[in-house]
Amino acid sequence: LLFAVLTYCVPVVTLLYWLLFNYLPVGFTTELPVVVNQPLPFQTLILAFFVSLIPASVALYGIINLKKLFVLYEKAIVFSEQNVNCFRHLGYTLIYWVAANLIFVLLISIVLTFDNQPGDRMVVAQFGISDIGTLIIGAVVVLVSWVMNEASKLKDDQALTV
Q1: 1 near 63, Cβ under 8 Å?
Q2: What average pLDDT does this structure show over 149-157?
Q3: What does the CA dihedral 19, 23, 28, 29 come to, rounded to 10 degrees?
Q4: DSSP H helices in the chain
Q5: pLDDT of residue 151
Q6: Cβ-contact 97, 58 below 8 angstroms
Q7: Which of 155, 28, 16 is nearest to 79 (CA)?
Q8: What pTM value is reported for the model?
Q9: Is 30 helix (H, G, I), strand (E, B) or coil?
Q10: In whole angstroms, what is the distance from residue 109 CA to residue 105 CA?
Q11: Residues 63 and 10 sit within 8 Å (Cβ to Cβ)
């Protein structure tokens, strides 16, 4: 139920964030790669929303796979090809998340500073230690899915042995 709700909340909250951006307190805008000192025009806010859909879509992909995984657990299906696929997709989600954030930071910095005077426009790229950690965790999850796949094959072999 939680993941079903999140599937709808992520795009709605993203849209509300950008529609209400000009009215938000300063603390809500500090995570952006550039400082925004003036109210943004509506067109900029809409572009920012569409740029924000890049990481939001990766988050939705991860949420959908988590939902599938927990539905399998609810049915007591633990070592199956479906579980392996869910884990593999979750690992790739973490890897995609890093790429999506890199693209997001690049594009959002352009969108948010496009209306600035020439010389005040910015292009920002960010790649940090947390991104490296996320890539490593994603790779480990993909590796775990491979191990789970081998365990699933062994389980199937044992089931067929008389």
Answers
A1: no
A2: 76
A3: 80
A4: 2-19, 42-74, 81-113, 129-160
A5: 79
A6: yes
A7: 155
A8: 0.85
A9: coil
A10: 6
A11: yes
